[in-house]
Each structure stands twice: as C-alpha cells, then as structure tokens.
Amino acid sequence: MKAIDRLIVAIDDAGLAGVMRTANKLRESVATVKIGSTAFNANGPLAVQALAQLGLRVFLDLKLFDIPEQVSGAVRAMTRPGVFMMTVHTLGGPEMMTAAKRASQDEADRLGLPAPLIVGVTVLTSLDDSWLARVGLPGTAETVPLLAVAARDAGLDGVVCSALECAGVKAVCGDEFLTVVPGIRPSGTSRDDQKRIATPSFARSQGADYLVVGRPITGAADPQRAAATILRDMDQRRENT
Ligand code: C5P
Questions:
Q1: Is 63 designated active site?
Q2: Number of domains in the chain
Q3: Can you tell me whether residue 19 is helix, strand or coil?
C-alpha cells in the first residue's frame, strides 16, 4: 500500500462549511478523511455524502458502544456510498462486534457496495496506564492486545490502538489484522490532549497500517504542505522523537 492510502486525516470541525473547506484544500493530496461525533452529530449523513462527492473515502468514526441490536441498526444506517471504515468499541463485547460486522456486510451486499472495514477501539490514545490502573486493569501493553484478540475472534477487520501497541497486536493477531493508529505527532508539534503519541515514521516502523492525523494537518497554516511532510516522514525509519 502507498503512503497516501495509509494516511487518514481527521476533520473534527462542527460546521459543514469548515469540514468542506478543509476537505477541498486536501482533496488533491490525501485519499481518506475521517469524521467523528463532532461533524456527524452536527450535520448527519449530509457530511458523508458531501465528502464522498469530492471523491474522498470516508472513515466514519462514531465509536459505537451499545447492545448488539442497537449497534447493528446504527452500522446498517452508516453503510452508505463512500464509507470506507467505521468503529465500534471492543469493550462492547464479542456478540456486539460480530453483529456489527454482519450488519455492515449484509447492508453492503443489499446495496451492492464494498463492505466497509469495521475496526474496534481498544484504549483511547488520550488515556494512559494511570487510568487503567485506577479501574483495576493491567497497562495498555497488556490490555490492548487482549482486546485486539477479542476483536479478531469476533470477526472485526482490525483495531484502533496507539503506535506503542502495534507490534504487540500484530504479534498475537497476525500481520493481516489491521492497526489504525491515532495520536500521531510529527517531531516538534503539540501533543494537544493525546497521551500515547508517536511520529509518523515510528508508527509505520511498528507496523501501523493506517495513520490517523487530525490537528497537526487541519490546524497547520498550510494543511496540504503538512500532509505532504507527513507522507514523506511515513516512509522514513526514525526514532520516536
Ligand atoms: O487531532 P488529532 O490528531 O489528535 O486527532 C486524532 C483523531 O483520532 C480524533 O478525531 C480522535 O477522535 C481519533 N481517535 C483517537 N484515539 C482513538 C480513536 C480515535 O484520538 N483511540
């Protein structure tokens, strides 16, 4: 896969005008954008449609966390042209994850669309071991691979994890099981609210399949240039600094 197919730009504006302004700036340099609760709750399916019409693949990151019946219904509704990937929480359990995968496959077949990839959120990259310890769980190095195995056994295509856990996930789930990695911060940029961060090159060296980058690109004075720098960095092999 080429670097451009691995980069996912998170556009987290609320207003559709702002989302589309960023998407228009980036449409020549990236292939995939992600919208989440902010843009989707403000604009609904219109946001997906508008991005798909620009020729962009859409990662619809709504991080579903509910009983299997509700998640199936939501996934069916989200399986629409242009939607390339979506998320459910692995802590929703095996039945919920299996139901999500089946619902997206069935709906995609019904509509004659390629089935979207369904990936499971493990531990948010804005959290660290101190939170897991507080609720009696082992650290991310142990918890994330356990959740990944559950996601793989339930039939999901991959998980969302930090770069720091990618190698551990691949070791137990196999190379084909996808890792989608947010918390990407090029050297010298702000970590914002993210805790488990990595540079683009380090994430790739750990086996990250897809890199999710938001503010380092969308908040840059020249987003296109920031994306180009990250695409270049993805192909380098460097330390995590
Ligand atoms: O701006 P930044 O690069 O931190 O954006 C990261 C994006 O990845 C956000 O849209 C956030 O919702 C998402 N994300 C994350 N941690 C996860 C899953 C998704 O930061 N575990």
A1: yes
A2: 1
A3: helix
